[in-house]
Design a protein that fits this description.
4-stranded antiparallel beta sheet; 2 helices; alpha+beta; about 170 residues; elongated
């Protein structure tokens, strides 16, 4: 089965076992990630619903791509600038391309464990905080009022319209 996945602003056609280099993703070597933005999926000539397909990958390494040289020059101005750039990238090995139904069967076990831990964390109660927004808002309104009054007292001076030059008289030869 294959899938077309979008990551880092680029699209990749992947199948199980493929190795690809993508823009830098969070994680360390050995971590497993899920590429969620699946655009197209299928097997052979048949296409399937891309919304139901998930793509899992393992991070092989975090690396840098090849150096790109940036050279700027302006002729006859003694201006030369040379810079280099190496883009960060992540090397991925696609482990599985398939339906999310198979992965959902394993997920409820993890969710049940998380639900047991959640009530223990909620037993601690935080002290209620005072609402001081009204107290802080009132002094700001008082300070803003004198500034507006000062601005309305002084009106900007108006400039007189510019004078236009008189049209030139042309002499005609007789």
């Amino acid at each position: 089965m294959f899938a077309v996945v979008r990551t880092g602003g680029k699209q990749y056609r992947v199948a199980a076992g493929d190795k690809i280099a993508v823009e830098k993703l969070a994680g360390e070597a050995g971590d497993t990630i899920t590429l969620g933005d699946v655009l197209l999926a299928g097997e052979g000539d048949k296409l399937s619903d891309a919304g139901k397909v998930t793509v899992s990958a393992e991070i092989i390494a975090q690396a840098k791509s090849e150096k790109v040289l940036v050279f700027k020059k302006r002729r006859r101005h003694n201006y030369r600038r040379k810079n280099g750039h190496r883009q960060q990238m992540t090397l991925l090995r696609i482990t599985a391309v398939g339906d999310s139904k198979a992965e959902k069967k394993a997920a409820p076990k993890k969710e049940a464990a998380k639900k047991d831990d959640a009530p223990k964390a909620e037993t601690k109660k935080a002290a209620p905080k005072k609402d001081t927004s009204e107290e802080k808002a009132a002094p700001k309104a008082k300070k803003a009022a004198p500034k507006k009054a000062a601005a309305t007292d002084k009106a900007p001076a108006k400039k007189a319209p510019a004078k236009k030059a008189a049209p030139k008289k042309t002499e005609s030869k007789k």
